[in-house]
Amino acid sequence: MPTSNRGSLIAFISVTTLFFAWGFITNLIDPLIPAVKEIFSLSYTEAFLTQFAFFIAYGIFSLPGGALVQRTGYTRAIQISLAAMVIACLVFPAATHLRLYELVLVALFILGGGITVLQVAANPLSAALGSRSGAHARLVLSQAFNSLGTVLGPYLGSAVMLSGGVFAVAAAGADVEAARAASLKKIDTSFLMVAGMIVALMLFVWWASRRINEHAPPVTAERGSVFDALKSKWALFGALGIFVYVGAEVSIASIMINFLTQPEVMLADLKNPEGTRVLGIFNFEGEPAERAGKMLGWLYWFGAMVGRFAGSLLLTRIKAPVLLSVFAFVAGLLCLGVWQASGPTAGYMALSVGLFNSIMFPAIFTITLERSTASTASTSGLLCLAIVGGALLPQAVARVADAGYLHAAYIVPAIAYFVIVAFAASSSKAPIVSHGEAPATAH
Predict the structure, then answer these.
(1) Half-sphere exposure in the Cβ direction for 310 (13 Å, CA)
(2) Do both 179 and 319 map to the same domain?
(3) Non-local CB neighbours of 177 within 8 Å, separated by 6+ positions
(4) Which of 221, 253, 285 is the last residue of a domain?
(5) Amino acid 346: pLDDT
(6) Same domain for 408 and 425
(7) Cβ contact 342:430 at 8 Å
């Protein structure tokens, strides 16, 4: 293998590990929500502040993150973001020791800021580290590892944070305060392990930094202003699509564990001493909340990963607006079905939404770039800012759930998906504007 090819391969592998890391860490918040809800005796609205603290960072750090990449270069920006993430993970033990939920939110905000900058730097690198003709294949592979992280994060996080402690106190008759302390320690363990993983990544990126810098694209000082995109109706419509999509995806994942463990949904199945068998293949064991968390990883997020590969194939045969319309419409119907159904049927319908979420983010992103009259950089910046939907929409879902209507809370993501249907249907009739080659993105 030529030295240059070997160098670009090593650089690509090191960057792809970052995709896995932020997928893993982002979805580790899903089992954290029921953990802090139980430990700190929170309402849904209060517990969902975890997602608010994390995703609001996208709105605050996206533009500064781009400026940091311009000023320091890709590898140094990545190292700074990873260092911030380590600091965030080390704040968790302090938060649990002091038993301050507010400090947990501070840690999540710092973590979200680090991941935001990480994405700003890693997305263009994945496309550029190799031949131009292989850019699409590299992105698909990087996204696949990101999806693998989204599957393993909630699965392993549930095995640690949702086992024993406060989730076993009722059955075992243990002391409540001791059980709470045990669960707090499990949160510490989870994020200290993440800190160790990030430190290993820092060393790996440092080792590969010379190769990354050799093959990285030039850092341009010309960046379109987000305000320019506000003049394009398609940039605004696309931003709305990203806002409601991320909000719906995060809302459903955030509420899933608590939803599945409701008596009228799957609690009876989750209490089965022989385990919860799904599709005759998976057999999830542990406390009900732990089993529900594992199902979230292997059914909801694994479905999204499978759908991403299947969707990539389908998009070679079906136009993106058409496929997006179908997927969003089915996802909306499933959410309405959850609202009206009960028992395991409602649970499996909720878990099935992940499969249809799979293509939505990249499809909305590319459809918008093709039709926006603003520059690609301006439109991309606005779309990245719209990810703050993951901070705001879950709050609406939480308020409905707190009112005692957990099933009805799925109406909120249903409306979001039907907004995406309207976006996709309208885009099929809109002219495509040429901007040259659009930047690669991943989520």
Answers:
(1) 12
(2) no
(3) none
(4) 221
(5) 96
(6) yes
(7) no
d(CA 332, CA 316): 24
Both 211 and 338 in a single domain? no
| Residue of 422, 238, 240, 416 whose CA lies nearest to 332 | 416
Give me the pLDDT at residue 270, please.
Answer: 86
Give the separation between CA 77 and CA 40, rounded to whole angstroms. 36
The helix/strand/coil state of 187 is: helix
**DSSP letter at 403?**
T
Domain count, the chain: 2
pLDDT at 134: 53
CA–CA dist 356, 334 (Å, integer): 10
CA gap 345, 327 in Å, rounded = 20
| C-alpha separations of 124 from 12, 246, 330, 335 in Å | 11, 21, 32, 34
- Do 355 and 331 touch, CB atoms closer than 8 A? no
The residue whose two tokens read 């690609």 is: 376
Region 216-221: what's the mean pLDDT?
Answer: 65
- Name the H helices within 129-232: 135-161, 169-172, 176-215, 226-229
Got the DSSP string for 290-314?
HHHHHHIIIIIIHHHHHHHHHHHHH
Model's pTM, two decimal places?
0.88
Is the same domain home to 210 and 237? no
**Residue type for position 67:** A
**Domain region containing 148:** 1-221
User: Looking at 163, 187, 221, which one is the last position of a domain?
Assistant: 221
Q: In CATH, what number is assigned to the domain containing residue 255?
A: 1.20.1250.20
Token pair listed for 229: 């995109």
User: Which of the pair, 200 or 380, is modelled with greater confidence?
Assistant: 200
The separation between CA 427 and the C-alpha centre of its own chain, rounded to angstroms, equals 25
Residues 6+ apart with CB under 8 A from 53: 105, 106, 108, 109, 112, 391
DSSP assignment string, 58-106: HHHHHHHHHHHHHHH-HHHHHHHHHHHHHHHHHHHHHHHHHT-HHHHHH
| Long-range Cβ pairs for the range 344-347 (8 Å, 24+) | 344/265, 344/266, 344/269, 346/265, 346/407, 347/259, 347/260, 347/265, 347/266
Tell me, yes or no, whether 89 and 146 share the same domain. Answer: yes
Strand partners, 283: 277
